[in-house]
Design brief:
Largest sheet: 8 strands, mixed
CATH superfamily of the largest domain: NAD(P)-binding Rossmann-like Domain
Structural class: alpha/beta
CATH architecture of the largest domain: 3-Layer(aba) Sandwich
Shape: globular
Number of domains: 3
Strand order of the largest sheet: 3-2-1-4-5-6-7-8
Order of helices and strands: EHEHEHEHEHEEHEHHHHHHHEHEEEEEH
CATH class of the largest domain: Alpha Beta
CATH topology of the largest domain: Rossmann fold
Strand content: 15-25%
Distance between the termini: 64 Å
Length: 487
């Protein structure tokens, strides 16, 4: 199990890590003595699958398994990476990390999800403490890319590099903290905002909903793409940050904030916050709120991807890595006809009011099958080469229902130096029923010149090999059809 990971702790964060690693193709062994640990992980996996189906059409690796084991040693022996996510109590974490260091291999990185405890103290009792690092994620772990990576006094610099690369391969954005400090970077900023929010509620300046509205309708929208420094640089106009600081710097001396004070969490204040928070939820369950949060995050990240900025740039980079990895698997596939390069499961959100997959989803599956074919022939998007679909004829022959497994077979009908003519057939996997067909014509495009151009010779050679293999196949019955006129 060289590619397995061991997780210690299966709460909200540990369950999120289990989902993030499993979606990334890693087998997971998780230890948590809590009786509800398995249920927490299952719920996180369901949310993660749902979120990633919406997040990207890139070919994710085969999902890894998640096994809840009975002892810490079972979780970490023989794994390639360990992530601890126990409750935020220093003595408990030190004990668990020490035990993990004795059971895991001496070169295996042992990371902690602590949100603020100093790594030097956490690694104090470990064997081989040089391989310890903090890997502090943000909830939901399976969706938010940020992870703060920090080492202690005995952490080897190479450990931080290895940990960051491990997280990067999961589609995350490591922020390596330059030196250890309580609460690292992000939580120190969040703590300042949280203190002010509590004071505003405690002093009856605003309700919890009004505080949230002040963020989500204002600065929070900016923060999704720009932090405070870049935001204020823009606010300084043509003169930039210097002008902003000269104009607004004196306001820092005004008594606007109470950052050095903490409101006492009296029963009265707690009751006020709880009551207002319950009202704000509007009767929605935790499950409903989690899914609403995830859907909104997916939309924001996808919007940023269009601009290749912020979290969108992280997603775009992860997708490029996924597509780059896909040809290696596809190259091993046989060229014998028909090709079988793409499979899918009908997601619940594909279902329309008739109880079966919406017609747009058939086209989505055929588009994914075409992408799989292009990866199979070795298309290199980074080389400025791509095929664009210019015509599609789709026939609906059967119904696909929720959770059914599907696969697509692909036949190459013809090609020349600029064109690619393909025919897809969509089958229900369990009984091989034919549900739909799609005939497509694609043109090769030089994406750097943004014009149709001959495909590179090596790509044409690969396509020609497939064409020779497919030449003996009978022409599909529905190939070349057009919509008949109604009389």
């Amino acid at each position: 199990m060289a590619d397995a990971v061991g997780l210690i702790g299966g709460g909200v964060i540990g369950g999120g890590w289990a989902a993030r690693f499993a979606i990334g193709g890693h087998d997971v062994r998780l230890y948590d003595p809590a009786p509800d640990a398995a249920a927490t992980v299952v719920a996180a996996l369901e949310n993660a699958r749902r979120a990633h189906r919406r997040l990207t059409l890139a070919p994710l690796p085969a999902e890894g398994s998640v096994t809840v084991v009975g002892t810490l040693e079972e979780a970490v022996e023989g794994v390639a990476f360990v992530q601890e996510s126990a409750p935020e109590r220093e003595e408990l974490k030190r004990s668990l990390l020490a035990a993990a260091s004795r059971a895991a291999g001496p070169d295996v990185i042992v990371a902690s999800s602590t949100s603020g405890l100093l790594p030097t103290r956490l690694q104090a009792d470990m064997e081989h403490p040089e391989r310890f690092a903090v890997g502090h994620p943000f909830n939901p772990v399976y969706l938010l890319p940020l992870v703060e990576v920090c080492g202690g006094e005995r952490t080897a610099p190479a450990t931080l590099e290895r940990a960051a690369e491990r997280y990067r391969r999961l589609g995350m954005r490591p922020l390596v903290v330059r030196r250890e400090v309580d609460a690292f970077v992000a939580d120190r900023l969040l703590e300042a905002l949280w203190r002010e929010a509590l004071w505003l509620v405690a002093d009856d300046v605003a309700t919890v909903e009004e505080v949230d509205d002040a963020i989500r309708f204002g600065a929070g929208l900016r923060w999704a793409c720009m932090g405070p420094f870049l935001t204020y640089r823009i606010a300084g106009g043509p003169a930039g940050m210097r002008h902003f600081l000269e104009q607004f710097g004196p306001a820092l001396a005004l008594p606007w904030t109470r950052l050095t004070e903490v409101p006492e969490l009296t029963d009265e204040l707690l009751d006020k916050i709880v009551a207002q928070s319950d009202a704000q939820a509007g009767g929605r369950s935790l499950h409903e709120l989690e899914r609403l949060r995830d859907d909104c995050l997916v939309s924001i990240i996808q919007g940023l991807r269009v601009h290749d900025f912020g979290a969108g740039a992280v997603l775009a980079g992860y997708e490029r890595a996924l597509f780059a990895a896909a040809p290696a698997a596809a190259a091993a596939a046989d060229d014998e006809a028909p090709l079988r390069l793409h499979s899918a499961v009908v997601a619940p959100e594909w279902i329309d009011y008739n109880g079966h997959a919406h017609e747009s989803r058939y086209l989505q599956v055929f588009g994914d099958a075409t992408d799989a074919l292009l990866r199979h022939v070795g298309l290199d998007l980074d080389a400025g080469s791509s095929y664009f679909t210019v015509e599609t004829h789709l026939s609906h022959l059967g119904q696909a229902r929720a959770e059914e497994r599907l696969h697509v077979t692909t036949q190459l009908l013809g090609h020349d130096e600029k064109r690619l003519h393909v025919f897809h057939a969509l089958h229900r996997t369990d009984d091989e029923a034919l549900l739909a067909t799609a005939e497509q014509m694609l043109l090769h495009v030089n994406t750097r010149a943004d014009r149709v151009a001959p495909a590179p010779p090596e790509l044409l050679e690969r396509i020609a090999r497939i064409a020779r293999s497919h030449a003996a196949l009978p022409r599909p019955e529905r190939a070349g059809r057009a919509i008949g006129s109604a009389r």
